[in-house]
Amino acid sequence: MTRKFKLILLVAILLIGSNVRADEGMWIPMLLKKYNIEDMQKAGFKLTAEDIYEVNQACLKDAVVGLGREGRPFRHFCTGELVSDEGLMITNHHCGYGAIQSHSTLERDYLKDGFWAMSREEELANEGITASFLIRMADVTDKVLDGVTEDMKEADRQKLIKKHIKAIVEDAEKDTHYRASVKAYFNGNQYFMAVYEIFKDVRLVGAPPSAIGKFGGDTDNWMWPRHTGDFSMFRIYAGKDNKPASYAKDNVPLKPKQSFKISLKGVNQDDFTMVFGYPGTTTEYLTSYALKMMTEVDNPHKIKIRTKKLDLMRADMDASPLVRIQYSAKYAGVANSWKRWQGEIKGLKRLNAIEKKEALEAKFEEWANSTPELKKKYAGILSKMKAYYAEVTPLSLARDYAMEAGFRGAETVGLAGKFKNLSTFKKEDADKVQPEVEKLKKDAVKFYKNFNLPTEKKLLAATLKMYNDNISDEFLPEEIKNIKLKYKGDFEAYAEKAFAKSIFANQEKLEQFLNNYKPSQAKKLSKDPVFVLSNSISFLYGSKIAPAYGKIMNQIDKLQRTYMAGLMEMQPEKVFYPDANSTFRVHYGKVSGYKARNAVQYEHYTTLEGIIEKDNPEIFDYDVPQKLRDLYKSKDFGDYANEKGEMPVCFAATNHTTGGNSGSPVLNANGELIGLNFDRAWEGVMSDLMYDPEICRNVSLDIRYVLFIVDKFAGAGYLLDEMNIVK
Ligand code: ARG
Ligand code: ASP
């Protein structure tokens, strides 16, 4: 194909694809009536837009919560849903993992053995977890952008916007116990306010053992076919007035406005499905320049650094059961994005994403130059954007190394960073010392519980070497240059020496140092090798990287906002959905398998048989609990089997979801709960940047497997009594 012909073909494909497409999109609930409901009903949905979102009556949105943390409740890390009118809520096992872990000890290991509260008294309180119900939304664009002009300086614009948002939030919260948050949509072209009722007493009710809740572990993570029983249960408590209250023993189970009916009917290929939840971040409208920087520079380096870290951790975990326990959560944390980035790069290549973006940009250029008015608004923005990306790329890479190989390379570097405050205290700050010391001691206890010095030494040596080998002198922290000279490039020798001397080598040394800390000891701290390194990275980052990077990104953000506005103006017939921003969205699509690659066609669901197929006591991730084997053998599936007599476990569908959607309710055409969203299939994880209905799949846990595990496996069937299960 000639280049020109290729271009024409791509433009043609883009034009065809420009109407509302089912599957793709994460939609704003208050706008469903205007943009989506007809399409949804055509796809099989049996209810109305008001059944999903209606301010003046109970509706499905009232059974969904965004899970957050005290202090930053609007950054929902997962989603949950109410399944009883006594506050019972379900989310994923990996969303409840921290809570489950925090109640676990060596003697009572709830991660390993699972946990089931056999009465309300046994439910376990969790400090700091919040559950937010959306009360209402409003388009506040006009108020936020009041007085904002196009020729305004970016900083002035942001200041004015901030001021307006503050006033809007105050006004919305006035005389209520609600909390409001205003967020930008479409890169700052629109603003919506969300008003929440935020509950703060969320107690752990139950979790299956990790051999079920995390079955397949990091091996199966981001993969289809999947067999993970990724769920845990909590109960939301309220004050006696049914309003949010901090934890108190005599709080009572929340009476929610709405809870989901649970359907045992299950799913078939092509069935309508819908997901409600709090997707975190997507970037669907970036330019080809941004995509190139991400997929050709930033992410390959981040993958390379993490591959090294994971290899080192894995080797030590395989050699010692203790290290495995200590490092498994950290390993999972590092591996999760590492695996997604790799799938993303492959997926974008497969879609020819960069060429598609380039074709759209060529079309945009032509359109932007077609009239004098358009020219004034949009001409030249793409070439400016291109130049800024060229300028920011080395800074972005330096930033990635500072993060991935610096602050998060070896863990003590991050820990040492927390000692910065302490090191600045002077004699006259004596009264500040004790509270700071107490805080650091707490950090230290948590830190060293999961720490192995030999692993840490290897991590430090390896990440510093990579930092040194991949970053030019201009962006290399002074201390790394010093180390290279002094140790002739032998970073392992450095790591040995550094930890022989450093107070961060173990808990005893650090506590000893903290126990009698006085401002006069700041000098000792300032000479500690790990502290020196940490300081040097943060100095370079703060002086050479962050300001320059921030300045260019501000310009890029402004251009992206203009580009977004232009894309919408250029395609007035197209219904756009805003990128995910941790606000409530509705996703809809259909249950579907997919063709993963040449000659490989996947079905849309998995069953317990697949778990037994994977069973291998030798492999940690696939060690099936004996009781589950027994249940399989005796086919004791109760009411939960499908019409073929199989025990369903997971299913795949075309809903366009992302991180944060974990735990989201998956509903059928009648709005009944049929599953819990928890992941995506690896071949389609580029959906955060470009969605493809052929291959992008969200992965859900079948609700029947949840009920089966609670009832038959855990013997906690009494929990089902408070649920509304329809056959
Ligand atoms: N990939 C899923 C998500 O992004 C699940 C991650 C947790 N599980 C794991 N094995 N690391 O959150
Ligand atoms: N596993 C993700 C989450 O925790 C969901 C996804 O990225 O698809 O939210």
What does this structure look like?
The protein is an alpha+beta fold and 727 residues long. 47% of the residues lie in helices and 15% in strands. Strands 1, 2, 3, 4, 5, 6, 7, 8, 9, 10 and 11 form an 11-stranded antiparallel sheet that branches. Strand 7 (179-185) and strand 8 (190-199) form a beta hairpin. Helix 11 (288-319) runs antiparallel to helix 13, helix 11 packs parallel to helix 15 and helix 11 (288-319) runs antiparallel to helix 19 (453-470). The termini are far apart. Mean pLDDT is 95; it is low at 12-20. Residues 94, 217-218, 221-222, 332, 336, 659, 662, 679 line the site of arginine (ARG). Arginine binds next to helix 10 and helix 12. Belongs to the peptidase S46 family. Pfam families: Peptidase_S46. This is Dipeptidyl-peptidase. It comes from Marinifilum caeruleilacunae. Keywords: Aminopeptidase, Hydrolase, Protease, Serine protease, Signal.
